[in-house]
Protein: Iron-sulfur cluster carrier protein
Amino acid sequence: MELNPNINRTIAVMSGKGGVGKSSVSALLTVEMARRGLKVGIMDADITGPSVPTMFGIVNIRPTINEAGIFPVETEKYKIQVISINLLLERPDQPVIWRGPLLSKAIQDFWNEVLWSDLDFLILDMPPGTGDVPLTVLQSMPLDGAVIVSSPQDLAFMIVKKAIHMVQQLQKPVLGLVENMSFIQCPKCQEIIYPFGQPKGKDISTQLQIPFLGELPIDPVLSEYCDAGKIEEYENPKIKNIVDMLMVGFS
Ligand SMILES: Nc1ncnc2c1ncn2[C@@H]1O[C@H](COP(=O)(O)OP(=O)(O)O)[C@@H](O)[C@H]1O
Ligand SMILES: [Mg+2]
Structure:
């Protein structure tokens, strides 16, 4: 795929596994970048499990489509440009039952046919695993790199290493690792609890020679805000650190 003159930088958010927080991290990255005055967009590349519109509270809003292409929907607060298959389906609970090549085609269309306007950053919220869509994105999109998300369980890390190795094999930069659901802080006594054992993200990043971007706690407020479509309201200093670290690679 060709460079898109309307998109300055493109970052894919990946992991080996589902449910580790790719979509939440993707959305939080765009929100924090938008708060810094950057123009950002988010492409929901998880065609069979789209969750971006819900997190941003985009319901019953459809993209404008004309002969020039598809206009992304803008979020209410920060005007983040959003495209998702769910914005194009008749009903949000309608399944998309497509084989790999069709899924890859949808991603190409999201790149070529969507009228992104002047983006500093486009974040791609990827489906789990190392299947057709991640392959298409890594092979054929002008990607600046991938942010990898894991949760602290050994199993999650074992699988996340596959995603990291896939990115490296396809010669794209690994921009860093985010360890999500790393700890929980007691709201009463502030004690920090590690429900999955000691965090391992930092050590694993050193081992694999990739940047460590930071940890995010398990936060019931985050999951509540995601479900309620209020992710633009969510605040956490840890996200700022992660974006600071990520931006080092772009300065
Ligand atoms: N740090 C966190 N604290 C609390 N809940 C979280 C956190 N990260 C993700 N979740 C919740 O876990 C579920 C899966 O997260 P999601 O971002 O959709 O993962 P993925 O995109 O990797 O499948 C969602 O319900 C989300 O709200
Ligand atoms: Mg997801």
Q: What stands out?
A: The helical segments are 22-35, 52-55, 100-112, 132-140, 154-169, 201-208, 220-228, 237-248. Residues 154-169 form the longest helix (16 residues). Residues 15, 18-24, 51, 180-181, 216, 218-219, 222-223, 226 surround adenosine-5'-diphosphate (ligand 1) (CB under 6 Å).
